[in-house]
Design a protein that fits this description.
This protein has 16 helices and 13 strands. The chain is elongated, with a radius of gyration of 39 Å. It has a five-stranded mixed β-sheet with strand order 5-4-3-6-7, with helices on both faces. A four-stranded antiparallel β-sheet has the order 9-10-13-12. The chain has 498 residues and is of the alpha+beta class. Strand 3 and strand 4 form a beta hairpin.
Length: 498
């Protein structure tokens, strides 16, 4: 048994408990026989002296010493001291230890989840939708932790497409020394190992209060393989990382920006500042402003636009997360059309993201709550359009004509011009004004829908030059009244006495 009396070295093979028990075993072997009787009667004349010495040197009590003496006698009979030196629980199986069958079940569930993540793109080709281990963890019926799942899969040379490069490197090294016979398993591992990650900027977080800065940006990505790439435009709070609002369109358009900002205002209010990139929709240099930045500046919102991604790191970080987790979620929910995807973005995306990634809304915020009507009235724009022969207008390659509330076509002065208005926050329907009356413009075919100016309704006569001047003055008066009303509402909202 001398070979068991190894010393502690640089590898620290022996624990403190085992070393203590080993020294005590040596002491007993020198002073006791196999029956537990004291041999060294010169040093220990009585048992009380023996127990007192053990208590001073080894810190064992009397009852504990008696129990260890019995174990010592048993070790001499069995000719091994392993059970004496090691703790009694060392020979028991851990209650939380996974069996091989349980591990095989988890690996089988992962392979099934992987196979279900495959779909066909718009060209009919089979493609793989990458996912993270966390996505699988939330779907699988689990009675174990995420770290346990990750440890089991990596031990079996399985990782996700978004694993760290060091993890993938380790698995590649293990596969060189092992032989995998299953072709499907090899294909699964290679697709995960060879997936190229998109690069995103590093997040530089600053201490901000919720509502102080909102970051707005769009991301064009193949969210659903069955359709072409489309754009999600999102607004993220820079202080908390909460996804405030989102909208969907094929490209980054004015409509998408207005829709996202309108949702933000209706749910939370206006932030102190909005950070974005140099898109035509929102970029302004302080002198030249756009249809979106001009009303925002009038409402007290600072708009800053820069071309580098570090300007808005929180929303850039969110795109990295969504590109990893959102496609597999859409595949699981069987969302395959643009209409279904639009409904999901409008109704569920923000709540799912904030809950999934634990983004909490702070009760203390700096959002400026504003009436929806005030916000909408600030987003009315106008442009002058020439009235063409046939009594119609051409706007954005569309042929339009005004219709009244009774859906009857209204006459305009030919070879003249008229102001066309849009409310960007509503359905974006263009309209013209006849005093206080709004006549919305509808699409017509000028070659088919001829308009006889002689057959007019009594309330819409042809305008002569004097009448046209009067109507223009009435338009100006109506516009001034609207501006006065908006100013009064702003004063009331800011507690300013008029």
């Amino acid at each position: 048994m001398e070979d068991l009396f190894f010393l502690r070295n640089k590898y620290d093979l022996v624990s403190e408990f085992q070393l203590r028990r080993l020294n005590f075993w040596r002491f007993l072997s020198r002073n006791l026989n196999k029956h537990g009787e004291i041999v060294n009667t010169v040093k220990f004349k009585t048992k009380e002296q023996f127990y007192a010495y053990i208590h001073r040197k080894f810190k064992y009590s009397r009852s504990q010493t008696k129990r260890l003496i019995k174990q010592f006698s048993a070790s001499l009979d069995n000719e091994t001291c392993i059970k004496f030196v090691k703790h009694k629980n060392s020979f028991l199986e851990p209650h939380n230890k996974f069996s091989r069958a349980k591990m095989d079940q988890i690996i089988g569930n992962y392979k099934h989840f992987f196979n279900n993540s495959k779909t066909k793109n718009k060209l009919g080709q089979e493609v793989y939708i990458p996912f993270t281990l966390m996505d699988f963890y939330y779907v699988d019926e689990r009675d174990y932790s995420y770290n346990t799942l990750r440890r089991i899969l990596i031990a079996n040379n399985i990782c996700s497409a978004f694993s760290y490069r060091s993890t993938k490197k380790k698995i590649k090294y293990n596969l060189q020394n092992q032989e995998v016979k299953d072709i499907k398993t090899i294909e699964m591992i290679n697709q995960c190992l060879n997936y190229k990650l998109s690069r995103h900027s590093k997040v530089i977080r600053k201490q901000r209060i919720m509502g102080q800065v909102a970051e707005i940006d769009g991301c064009i990505h193949e969210w659903i393989p069955e359709i072409t790439k489309c754009n999600i435009l999102a607004i993220v709070d820079a202080g908390t990382g909460v996804l405030l609002s989102a909208s969907l369109d094929w490209q980054e358009t004015n409509k998408a920006y207005i829709e996202a900002i309108n949702k933000l205002v209706n749910k939370y209010g206006l932030p102190k500042a909005i950070y974005g990139d140099r898109r035509r929709s929102i970029f302004s240099d302080g002198i030249n402003s756009t249809k979106i930045t001009r009303p925002l500046n009038e409402l007290g919102v600072v708009v800053k636009c820069e071309s580098f991604p570090e300007h808005k790191p929180n929303v850039e970080s969110m795109w990295k997360v969504l590109q990893q987790s959102l496609p597999i979620l859409l595949h699981q929910r069987k969302i395959k059309t643009y209409e279904q995807f639009e409904s999901f973005v409008n109704n569920e995306l923000c709540d799912w993201y904030n809950k999934r990634f634990r983004k909490f809304i702070s009760p203390l915020n700096q959002f400026n709550h504003i009436e929806p009507e005030i916000f909408k009235n600030n987003f009315v724009v106008s442009e002058t359009r020439k009235i063409r022969k046939g009594n119609y207008l051409k706007v954005d390659d569309r042929y339009l004509a005004p219709f009244n509330s009774e859906n009857k076509r209204v006459a305009m002065r030919e070879k003249g011009s008229i102001n066309v208005y849009w409310n960007l926050t509503s359905e974006n329907k263009p309209y013209v004004k006849w005093g206080s009356e709004k006549c919305y413009l509808k699409d017509i075919d000028p070659l088919v829908e001829s308009f006889n100016l002689k057959e007019l309704d009594p309330w819409t006569p042809l305008l002569d030059e004097n009448e046209e001047i009067i109507m223009n003055l009435k338009d100006q008066i109506c516009n001034l009244k609207e501006e006065i009303t908006n100013l009064k509402l702003k004063c009331i909202a800011n507690n300013i006495n008029i």
